[in-house]
Amino acid sequence: FDASGWHYAAMKRTGENATCPAKDMSCYFLPMTNCTPQPQKADKTYPNRTRVDHERYTSVYQFVTRTQQWLRKAVYESTKQISLKGPDCAVMHVRRADVVMHNDYSRKYFPVSAYVDKLALVNRTHEILLLTDDANAIEEAHEFYPKIRWYYLNRTRFRGSEGGWENQTPSKNPKQEVVVILTLFALAQRCDTLVHGHSTFSDDLYRTMTVDGRHVKRLRVDEGLQVFQKNNSESEKILQTALQKKRNATIKTAT
Q1: What are the residues whose beta carbons fall under 8 Å from the beta carbon of 237, sequence distance 6 or more?
Q2: 129 three-state secondary structure
């Protein structure tokens, strides 16, 4: 954290719209300890583990993210927006936004069709919980797949990369963004299939979906492809062009 606080507890750089005066995780989660924090000191006597087994990770994650009562209630109320029951449904995570702005480590904007094609292989295209940071992806889903029952939260989203580099709060309301994230985690647990590209959010999503030990089918839209490359920085424009060609072809066929 810097002086402006954690960007999910206050606006990045400015520190505005803070969830609480501390501007850190304590705004949302119960204290991890009764000890007084000492930010300038670090205990380096623990083993240097670069990998943690799934069971231990899950236990630590669940302890650290014990939500305050107001947040539990907010998430519970938020989940009522979605009538999806499951379990034979799919979660589709379409990550876009600034992934094309990482130069040599840019990731690709995949069309919604690439995700749907993956789900078709496992017969999970009838009900889909769509998680995306791109308003265009929602319109794309409805436009090209009107017969699929799409579920998603009504929230503020940027279009494509218009939000710029690492701007995770399109609503300018950090508290609401956290409620949205935890709501999505709760809703995702209703489904038995996850399709996504490279994303740490998707990794955490999968851990949440499998926390009770149940099997979840995991599909990668970028399977077998080079995930990071400079050419991907042009994929937003390439996708827009490809979708317009598809629209034109549909109009031509109709006439």
Answers
A1: none
A2: strand
